[in-house]
Every structure is written in structure tokens, then in C-alpha cells.
């Protein structure tokens, strides 16, 4: 324990209750809160506050403890404990509260808050292909794809996953990041220091353009893993084109098989192939190296009617049977791709049991 603290050296916030009965000292910030409110949700706080403290050592008439956390994180935790943690309209700014509360609810074993944060994170960084598709759908308005309004930069999420051992969320965060061009991936994320853990803040770089912002970059091994994953994704799509589109046979029940040996359906496959080839180089949509998206587009081409034959709008003349046949091939490929993502980013070897690690972790107070 440090020497008897002098409150004049501490800042306070709105978490300074006149009828509070425990003082938390966190770096240069003091919180006067209610022991029962904290003890009710955390055995760690219960044990911490049960240590007897001499009356002479009280501060503002209360016992006190020093927490080795970030004051901003503690403020978010107290808000969540006193006011609840709600995300009515999810935005990328929620990451500040989610990461802070997750960090401390993990450390202080506050299960209901930890679960709420994990549910929110998994909604944004899904662990299933269905979840991923619905996430992508949510942030697509027409042809406009605007993920950053709702989700924080994936580098921030990757770092949080690594810090807290969230191995299940890491693959979708890495996949999301790998869809950027290499230059953008290497450039890192520009963000405000409040969104970072102390560890990340310590290694963040000053932003030469905006003094209020910092730049967070992946370290070299992680950067290499992202580039490797990106290459795997591109190779996957190239292999799909080779195996499923190049010279694809018409389906067994092709309705066009008696007309020029299924010419319309073969021509449709060829058209889809040409479009996918554009996507391999990331020039079709500006979304580089996103096999899940490109494959979805391939299926959507089957029912689009906005192609042009030079004089009017039209759709592909592929028959229903070939459509179904190809749709099934794409669905299987997308699931295969999703299942392979952890391998693409070299994650298998690192996978550990998250719950076991949490139980084993000793709180540092
Ligand atoms: Zn056909």
C-alpha cells in the first residue's frame, strides 16, 4: 500500500457520492462509491474490501483501495455497474465502453457485464458465416458499404483480442482487416487514445496531422500473418474460379442442354468468371481480397437484370437448374472459406481455452 493519500492530489468525477463508503484510487483519479454495489457483483472486490483498515488510515471518512487500472476503464465499469450497459443503436464509439468494461469485468470477475460485452463484440465480429453475412448486410445501404460507422477499426479489435485472449473473435477481425489494401493495412489505425489499453497507448505513435489522435500499428509478426491470410483468401478465390467456373459443365437437368449444348448456361458461367477474375485483383468493388463477398456477388449475378447486351437491360440466360447447381457450389465454397479463415491467419497453434485462462488469471490489485 502506498503512503496515506492526500485527496488534493486526485481528480474526481461524477462518481463521487456524498454517501459513498469506499474510495477507489486509480492513478490520479479518486472515486467515492458504494462498497455494496461493487461487492454485490464481484467476489474480487468482496475480498479486497474485507481487509481491515485502521481508522487513522481512512480518507474522507472511508476506507480506500488503490487499483492498478486505467481511470477511464474504471469510470466505464462504474457507469456500467450503476447505470447499466446498453447499446440501443450500435456505433463504433461503443468500443470505448465495451473494451474497458470487458477488460475490467474479466479482471474482477463480473460475469454479467463480461457476457454482455462478449455478446456485443460477437455481433460485430461474428464466429459463424451466418453472423458474418448479417453483419455485412447491416452496414450495406444499397451499394454503399460503410462499416466504420458501426464497427471500430479492426486493428483495435485484434489488439483487444490478443490482450484478453478472445481467440473466437480474432479470425473475423483479422479477415476484416485483410480486405484492405496492403498499404492501408500497414499504415495502421488512427484513433483517439481513449480507445486504447495502457499497453497499446504506450506503443502508439503520435499522429502528425491531428495532435489529439494516435496511430496504432500491428507488430511485424501480426502484419505478416495478415498479409499471409490475405494471400490465402485470394488464392482460395482463384482456385474456385479454376475448379468451379473455368469450363464448368452444365447441370444434369439443364433446360438449355438441347440448345447449342447449353450455350446460354455456359456463356453465363463465363460471364461470372470474368467478373470474379476482376475481383481477384480487388478492382471490381474496391474491397480487396474478400472471397466471401466476391462469391456472394457471383451468386447475385444469377438473378440480376441490370446487365446490358448493348441495347437494353437484361439478365443472364442461365436456366434454373444450372442456377441452383452453381448456387450450391458457391454456398459450399463460402462455408469452406469461412472454416479455413483461422488457418489462413495461422491461428490454430495459438488457440487456447479462453475460460480456463480467465479462471487461472490472478487479479492484480
Ligand atoms: Zn442450364
From TrEMBL:
Signal peptide: none
Domain BTB, chain residue ranges per copy: 20-90
SMART domains linked to this entry: BTB
Name listed for the protein in its UniProt record: BTB domain-containing protein
Organism listed in the record: Lentinus brumalis
Amino acid at each position: 500500500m502506498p503512503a496515506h493519500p492526500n485527496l488534493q492530489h486526485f481528480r474526481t468525477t461524477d462518481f463521487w457520492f456524498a454517501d459513498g463508503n469506499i474510495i477507489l484510487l486509480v492513478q490520479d483519479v479518486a472515486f467515492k462509491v458504494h462498497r455494496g454495489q461493487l461487492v454485490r457483483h464481484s467476489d474480487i472486490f468482496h475480498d479486497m474490501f474485507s481487509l481491515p483498515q485502521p481508522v487513522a488510515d481512512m480518507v474522507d471518512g472511508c476506507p480506500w483501495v488503490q487499483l492498478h487500472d486505467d481511470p477511464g476503464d474504471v469510470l466505464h465499469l462504474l457507469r456500467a455497474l450503476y447505470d447499466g450497459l446498453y447499446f440501443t443503436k450500435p456505433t463504433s464509439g461503443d468500443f470505448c465502453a465495451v473494451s474497458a468494461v470487458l477488460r475490467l469485468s474479466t479482471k474482477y470477475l463480473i460475469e454479467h457485464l463480461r457476457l454482455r460485452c462478449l455478446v456485443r463484440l460477437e455481433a460485430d465480429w461474428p464466429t459463424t458465416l451466418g453472423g458474418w453475412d448479417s453483419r455485412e448486410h447491416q452496414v450495406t445501404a444499397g451499394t454503399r458499404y460503410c462499416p466504420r460507422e458501426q464497427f471500430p477499426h479492426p486493428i483495435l479489435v485484434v489488439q483487444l483480442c490478443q490482450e484478453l485472449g478472445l481467440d473466437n473473435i480474432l479470425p473475423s477481425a483479422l479477415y476484416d482487416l485483410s480486405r484492405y489494401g496492403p498499404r492501408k493495412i500497414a499504415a495502421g489505425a488512427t484513433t483517439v487514445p481513449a480507445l486504447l489499453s495502457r499497453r497499446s497507448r504506450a506503443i502508439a505513435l503520435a499522429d502528425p496531422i491531428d495532435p489529439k489522435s494516435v496511430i496504432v500499428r500491428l507488430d511485424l509478426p501480426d502484419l505478416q500473418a495478415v498479409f499471409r491470410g490475405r494471400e490465402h483468401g485470394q488464392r482460395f478465390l482463384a482456385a474456385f474460379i479454376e475448379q468451379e467456373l473455368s469450363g464448368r459443365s452444365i447441370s444434369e437437368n439443364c433446360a438449355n442442354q438441347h440448345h447449342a449444348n447449353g450455350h446460354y448456361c455456359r456463356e453465363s458461367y463465363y460471364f461470372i468468371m470474368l467478373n470474379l477474375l476482376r475481383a481477384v485483383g480487388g478492382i471490381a468493388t474496391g474491397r480487396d481480397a474478400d472471397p466471401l463477398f466476391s462469391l456472394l456477388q457471383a451468386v447475385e449475378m444469377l438473378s440480376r437484370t441490370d446487365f446490358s447486351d448493348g441495347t437494353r437491360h437484361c439478365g443472364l440466360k442461365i436456366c434454373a437448374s444450372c442456377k441452383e447447381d452453381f448456387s450450391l457450389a458457391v454456398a459450399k465454397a463460402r462455408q469452406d472459406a469461412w472454416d479455413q479463415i483461422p488457418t489462413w491467419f495461422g491461428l490454430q497453434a495459438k488457440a487456447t481455452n479462453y475460460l480456463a485462462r480467465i479462471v487461472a488469471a490472478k487479479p492484480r490489485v
